[in-house]
Design brief:
The structure is a homodimer of 326-residue chains.
Chain A: H1 8-17, E1 27-29, H2 34-37, E2 40-45, H3 56-68, E3 73-77, H4 81-91, E4 96-102, H5 107-115, E5 119-123, H6 127-141, E6 144-146, H7 152-166, E7 174-178, H8 183-195, E8 200-206, H9 211-218, H10 241-250, E9 253-257, H11 259-273, H12 283-290, H13 292-295, E10 299-304, H14 311-318, H15 321-325
Helix pairs in contact in A: 1-7, 3-4, 3-7, 4-5, 7-8, 8-10, 11-12
């Protein structure tokens, strides 16, 4: 049993705080993908909800606890999905939400944050600049800073996915998880290691944003000077030490994948599963694509964690000659 | 309370026979669609399952009852979704499935029927020719003929969607339903009229395949000589009298929509909800698009009933100049 910062009792309690629209999401085998991948593929779909990503599970817990405590404001940095989810959860509970994002974040995500009534502040630089600015805003205004993956609500909210996987009737022996800040990976990983320890937990980052993968391998925080990936949802440079500690306890492996594999994963999901996904959500399949031998004959579960993508880019990535062959 | 052929007690019992992978599907408000439609839009998503349509709900009931009765074979005519679902349900219960389809049916659907191990027979002509051939096969072989919309399992299976809508926490005052053979419309309609009679039930057919709509308006069966629509899943010519009787009891209105509205609906669902849908699944939104005034300010629920579509055609329909404006 891993001694992470997470607690399975609290994870079960979190389910009571989360709007049911985010819970008990589809989990189904997608056989049409399998001839291309050489293993059984089971999809946990986190996109069929009002914010089109799994982040609502965590923000529901945060906003619920804030409202109960009479706190009326919160700020976060976000590549887009956390901000959108926090805007949704805050709006229903009368909590003012400020989101700080990089000017270069995905337009579709920024538009939705604004539409949901949050205050959106754009900064130059990347997601790490947004994190700094959000922290400074929170300090100056004396309001709650929500830090993705560091704050336990985000991890334990995401962990409810793990609980649903463990309680499904679908058998699987491997789970492949997108690894960004670490909330999804440590959350789902914690539950699996505690309740289904036979399942191998494989986390996946883009080669163009490998800081947490490198950190996991060297068992110490490694930062990078820049990121270069289309997987905007997982492109961090400064891993959080406490999250790395948890990841070391729950991940059996952390692998890195190429951009073309991420695109190939998106293409497969579109053409053989009928799913529009954002690049981060294709990381799991990308890992299988890059190492079919490793996964051959296994039953893999992957979390399709978001579908907030600029459609023009998605169309570019998934069309063309390769699409006809995929 | 409508005196249809359906029974709410049996509908609840049907839920016990259906693999949970087809039940309790996502139902969520999709605000990003709303500025384009002028009403609240709530999506009941029936595509995130192993056969990518709602038809599994009915075929699970059929295959379950057949297996219990020791019957090992069944044949059906299908435009593709029923056949795929029956193939899936039969396979898990050792029931041999034969599907008869038109040679011009959607390739993606036919491929999946074969992949699921069913015997597929293709006939010249349209869906009505397939229905004739399936009936003759069943007679000659002495096996069960499953007739979509006529056989109560298909209606009562689909009706479980209605039960889930009624038991959700999301408020809605109008439901717009694709109308093909009538199983979905009479199933969901029956439950709504019995348990939520304040909800207006609007059924939608394509102008190019209007037989059941015309029949509903004239209160007698009207057939057509041909069909001409991209909505392959709802393109029948010979309405079933018993189904028409039920439809007369549960539908408040039946409207007809143009092909360009169906395409506009698919485009909106792709670009603003991130959903790939087959043409039939866009009929509900097409009805709103054609009569915004009628639905203005309402809260509409629509069943996204399938996503089995040839992706090249989908790409053609949803791309181009209009997509950038939608």
């Amino acid at each position: 049993m891993p001694r992470t910062r997470l607690d399975t009792g609290r994870i079960l309690a979190a389910r009571q705080l989360i709007d049911p629209v985010f819970l008990d999401t589809p989990f189904y085998r997608c056989e049409a993908l399998e001839p291309r991948l050489g293993c059984a593929v089971n999809i946990k779909l986190e996109t069929a909800n009002p914010v089109r990503s799994f982040k609502g599970r965590g923000t529901e817990v945060v906003a619920s606890l804030l409202a109960d405590a009479g706190r009326r404001a919160v700020v976060c940095a976000s590549a887009g999905n956390l901000g959108q989810a926090l805007a949704w959860s805050g709006r229903t509970r009368g909590v003012d939400v400020t989101v700080v994002a990089s000017r270069s974040a995905t337009t579709a995500k920024l538009d939705r944050i604004r539409a949901l009534g949050a205050t959106l502040e754009l900064v130059d630089g990347d997601h790490e600049s947004a994190r700094e600015r959000a922290a400074s805003l929170a300090r100056n205004a004396g309001i709650r800073l929500l830090e993705d993956s560091l704050d336990l609500e985000t991890c334990e909210g995401a962990a409810t996915i793990g609980w649903e996987l463990v309680n499904s009737r679908l058998p699987f022996d491997t789970v492949v998880l997108a690894l960004g800040g670490g909330a999804l990976a440590t959350g789902v990983g914690h539950v699996l290691k505690e309740l289904a320890p036979h399942v191998e937990v494989v986390c996946v980052q883009a080669l163009g944003a490998p800081a947490l993968a490198h950190s996991w391998r060297r068992r110490r925080v490694v930062t990078t000077a820049s990121t270069d990936t289309i997987a905007d949802g997982v492109a961090g440079r400064f891993p959080i030490p406490a999250v790395l500690e948890d990841l070391l306890l729950v991940a059996d492996d952390v692998v890195l994948v190429r951009e073309e594999s991420i695109v190939a994963g998106m293409r497969l999901l579109l053409h053989h599963a009928g799913l529009v996904v954002e690049p981060s959500a294709a990381l799991g399949l990308a890992a299988v694509i890059e190492d079919r031998d490793r996964f051959a004959g296994r039953s893999v579960a992957t979390v399709v964690c978001g579908s907030n993508v600029d459609m023009a880019a998605h169309r570019r990535w998934t069309g063309g000659a390769q699409a006809r062959e995929c």
